[in-house]
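Can anyone check this?
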Amino acid sequence: LRTIASTTDVLAVENVVVVETKGKYNNDCSTSRSNTNIIINKMITDNIDINITATSAAKNRNNAPADVTRRIMCGGLAGMVAKTATAPLERFKMLYQTGEHGLKSRVAGSTSVGAAVRSASGGSIGVIAMYRNILRNEGIMGLWAGNGANLLRVFPAKGIVFCSNDYYKNLLTNLTTSPSSNISKPSPMVSFFAGGLSGMTASAITYPLDLARGRISGKMAGVDGKKVKHYTSTWNTISLTVREEGVRSLYKGITPTLLGAIPYEGIKFGTVGLLERLFPPSLASPNNENDIKPTSNIWRKMAFGGMGGIMAGLITYPNDTIRRMLQLQGSRGSMHSYNGYWDCVRKVYAEQGISRFYRGVFVNIVRMGPNTAIQFGTYELLKELTE
């Protein structure tokens, strides 16, 4: 005990398990890290007969790689489950954004069954019409076209997002708060910046896979009556892109992707952080947070994640449309060409107006709620199962 009390690497209170203190110091053991030495010295002075199981900071550091791997696996699997469940809506959204669906928009004022989204010419194309067109040209699996490429991207991307978000959140919390402060949840601003940084980290590492997914999902086989599938797989897309357009083409659209990752992931995780502070677990239970059942925490994460996803998707949608159009320029069957981000914005606005940036936004709102809810819920569940 004297050795522990005198060391400069003071053990955190949560890593010191007091097995027997004769009841005198039970309350002291829940205090902050800065009081650890005081508690231990009091026990030594009073000659209390205690048994202590201590876990040092060095041991925690040794376990860090395993914990990072666990979080990446949980985040990656959570992303795969969510993306597969909402893949048909994602396909609709991307076809609306790129305009590569081969359908003519209806004149304004016409009606049809199903929801409608604005198209380039000012008319509208119904979701059911899009659904039938996909089945006619690509079959039922066309609803999941590009999902394989998406899963290859999502597993590392979402694994990195959730894992690095936890890292950035802890880092920023330690930088912005004092060790003696008893803060259980990070501030919404910390959650925002942690989410933004994690989104940029994941996007920079996995971007070529995102471009491949965009080119597969953003084009319809059978446009203009020709059933031509320009890209068949992730490897096929990447190899054809490099051969026909060069290696640099794998990073077409990366600027809006990185710029959009900050507000998108930032708003998503920031909204979740804000809701967790506004509706803490203690409000759902008469006891403290540790008494909350795991299932209740999972449902909270799903609800908060769904709301965060809708907010992020709605606010950042115009930027997402631009990046999809940049990804498709120069690809097989595409006639559009832009000289960078702002040239794309200027040309699209001049030709089709502000509504073009929001084509497919309704489908995206419907998709984002369950998509992010499943992500957060599954991640929380897998974390609890593997702890």
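Reply from J.R.: I decoded it. The CA atoms of residues 149 and 213 lie 5 Å apart.
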